[in-house]
Amino acid sequence: ENIFDRSRMSPKTPIKNEPVDLSKQKGCTPERNPITPVKLADRPQPDPWTPTANLKMLVSAASPDMRDREKKKELFRPIENSEQSDTPESLQYMVDDSTIDEFEKQRPSRKQKSLGLLCQKFLARYPSYPLSTEKTTISLDEVASILGVERRRIYDIVNVLESLHLVSRVAKNQYCWHGRHNLSQTLKMLQEAGELQYGELMNFFQHKEQDLECKFGERKKEAIPNSQEGPLLDFSETDCTSTSANSRKDKSLRIMSQKFVMLFLVSKTKIVTLDIAAKILIEETQDTVDHSKFKTKVRRLYDIANVLTSLGLIKKVHVTEERGRKPAFKWIGPVEFPVKTDELRGHSPRSDLLPGTQRGTCTPHPSCATGKQKLTRHASFNGAQPCEGTRRKVSSEPSSPRQERQDEYCSKMINLAAVCRQKIEEDTRNPSTPSSLSVLPLSGDFDFCVNSLPQAVFPVVQADVTRLSLSNGVSSQALHPSTPAASKTENGKPTQLSNQPFLCFPSSSLYMLCGGLQENSLRETPPTAGDVGNRSAEAQAAIPPAACPKRSSPKCALPSAAIDDEEPAAKKQNMEQSDVPLSLVIPKKAFESPMTESTPASGSTSAVHLEAFHLNLASPVASEAVDKESTKPLDSQEQEKQSQNKDSDELSSGKEPSSKENANQPFLPQYLYVQPAAGLNSFNFLFSANQAPGAISLAASPLPSLSVPCVMVPSAALASFPLVCSPAITSALSSISDGSFSAATSVNFSMSGLASPTPVFIGTTAVVTPRVSPAPVDPQQPVHPALHLSPVLASSCGAVKLDSPVCMGHPVTLLKLQQPSSAPLTPKNIRPARHEAFFKTPGSLGDPVAWKKNEGNQARNVSSVQRRLEISSTSPD
DNA sequence: CACTCCCGCCAATTA
DNA sequence: TAATTGGCGGGAGTG
């Protein structure tokens, strides 16, 4: 077919331009008709083709011509005419009608030009299972010319293939064809990553939102995983990548592709709707909600889907949901992979992944590959590991297993986040307000916020968690006395507070993210504690400075009340100190009851979910932690630091900000709050901006980062509100909820009214310890555990204030807080630098090492997830 | 009209 | 600086 087309087309114009021109020309082209007779089949019947055969044909035929043509295109255009004219066309031209029709046919219909088809052609050129020994190099230029397409299109294909390790980039314009040998491994990795992440979420969701689940469940699940996935992938693979280009690549098709695939692998149904996937991806990316972004994401997903379809991994289907029929894709590729994890992590993954990529260049790769590299890479590694680095990071290779672990944790975190987002999104959608996120005026900021949150938070969190025990908690404190945390603690809030992890609230759909705001630091908090921290916060803030305010305002609402009350003073102080944890919340009361209540009463589902969640997390975490530790000592440290930072940040940010003054408050914590409008099924998330930083810090391991403190609240519950986290409480909590949790404890939250519903609370920090504890030493491990969620009931106390008002109202609000304060909080180890960089903006930092990554990531915010991941990974020192 | 998604501008990166 | 990559979104093709 192609050939035909080519013959016709190619002669004329190579590719693009033609359409229009062609039309005219086409008229001319008639000649082709003669020629094309064959063509008939071409367009219309894509399927039929045999990829290879056609390809070959095309190639053979086209290649020569095509190449030239493309290049010539422009030239040709003019020429085309001539050419065409040359041919009988002119005559035909006359003929027009008939000819024209043919043209049309011939004319490359859109379908013919589709990326999927192009991909098939591309794939046809290479053996699915090339001899392991030999490597086939692919020249982009050559392929482009052969296939008669713009190079740009080839990039689209190659990027997706690269994400699956079917090819790897060797050098400029040069890719190495690996074939599908590694595909299963790659898929395993992705699946694992996805599962880890989303698994928890899944459970969580499932329990709670069964309803949603029905429809959404899958989605959510998927979504969750996705989010995680992204990161995971990123981490593992990205590490390198991230380093180099956080910015662009984060959003890259490559990453999106991996995430997308992860979703499928995670999904029970194996069906992923585009919208869900888009949402998920956006989340990760942080982008947000904008409709435009959504559209863009969808476009990209189509691009990816076309390639995956060509690979025979998915097929288009339609899913009928509430809203109606939605386009979706079903996974038709392999579902089970034998070794998955082990291999992946152990070696196979890498080998597979890497290998695939191949970069033989990077011998070192493995090491490099590992997540950390990125981080380190930046700084130290760059030089050291050129391999990948040189490459571009290739993208994602799955590099190291370790990373994966981290990733897992992270992913979990992420998943949660993702879930939240999804919910949010859903809510938004459903509800009247489509884009909840967008809702916030902050959009820009918003993005940041979001990004930051997720990214920073999650990743960070994980790392921390794993390594540190969440936040603060235990590990950090215990483990790292030296850490800032302690100091903070003194201030008033225990370190733990600062750490705070997550809170999950049952009901409604709010999402709050809290971050420390720069402002805080600015304003009030003098950087005392940790300049760095502050800075970091600032940095973050900086990025979106504008945003901050915005957010703050919105958010303010929420927490503010509660926060204000409590915190104000304390908070500020804390902030200064750096802590501030989640004061937002409130709650002392909560403590008490919460735990208990939560567990039992609360409920219900949510509680359960949470718990489950915890469990899940914990286990993985722990393992990961261990692994990581073993593997990466650095990371752990970093993580710790991060965690600390986070904690502090979180805490600080958490509270205050929101409530009161939002933006400017002394410290505003940054929160990201999202309300789901509609029905949210809800989750509410509360993140503290602070965390992000922390998270960032984590970077060390790519993964890790659960530490982030987040609070998720179910929308429903929100109404009541509830949650608060107070450091103090934490302890209580810990005891209450799970043991695990308690230890860490930092988290506290109380839910007020909601109790019943299910407030869930997840605290990273606190929890950690206990379970993990064993490994206390390694903070990391503990950390994971930390994540646990503990459901808490909140009493209605203070918490309510916070949220309810504000939160509830808006569909979504994100606040980004940067919270500098936090940094201060836990200054610990954290390197200031990072934070700064981290926060700062992307560019600014120049920091060395970690920064880079972090910065990059952050800077970009955009790509939130990835970056986060990256960031986290970065940490290493 | 909605869904797809091609096309290619142009920014980010790299050489 | 030039070339390579690749994000992004307009807007056209398709149903």
Structure write-up:
The chain is α+β, with helices and mostly antiparallel strands and 877 residues long. Helices cover 64% and strands 8% of the residues. The chain has 45 helices and 14 strands. Strands 7, 8, 9, 10, 11 and 14 form a 6-stranded mixed β-sheet that branches. The chain is elongated. The N terminus and C terminus are likely disordered. It binds a DNA duplex (15 and 15 nucleotides) through helix 8, helix 11, helix 14 and helix 17.
Keywords summarizing the entry:
disordered N terminus; alpha+beta; 8% strand; 877 residues; single chain; 64% helix; 3-stranded antiparallel beta sheet; disordered C terminus; 45 helices; DNA-binding; 6-stranded mixed beta sheet; elongated; DNA-binding transcription factor activity, RNA polymerase II-specific
Tally of extended strands?
A: 14
Largest sheet: 6 strands, mixed
The coarse overall form would be elongated
User: Mean of the pLDDT scores?
Assistant: 43
C-alpha termini separation: 55 Å
Topology of this structure?
Blueprint lengths: L1 H11 L5 H11 L3 H4 L3 H4 L8 H36 L2 H7 L1 H10 L3 H4 L1 H10 L11 E4 H8 L3 H13 L3 E5 L2 E4 L5 H26 L1 H35 L2 H5 L1 H14 L4 E3 H12 L5 H20 L3 E8 L2 E8 L8 H7 L1 H10 L7 H5 L1 H14 L1 H6 L9 H29 L6 H4 L3 H25 L4 H8 L4 H8 L3 H5 L3 E2 L3 E9 L1 H6 L7 H12 L4 H31 L10 H15 L1 H28 L1 H27 L9 E6 L9 E5 L2 H8 L11 E5 H4 L8 H10 L2 H6 L15 E3 L2 H8 L7 H7 L2 E3 L5 H13 L2 E2 L8 H4 L6 H8 L9 H12 L3 H11 L3
The protein binds a DNA duplex (15 and 15 nucleotides) through helix 8, helix 11, helix 14 and helix 17.
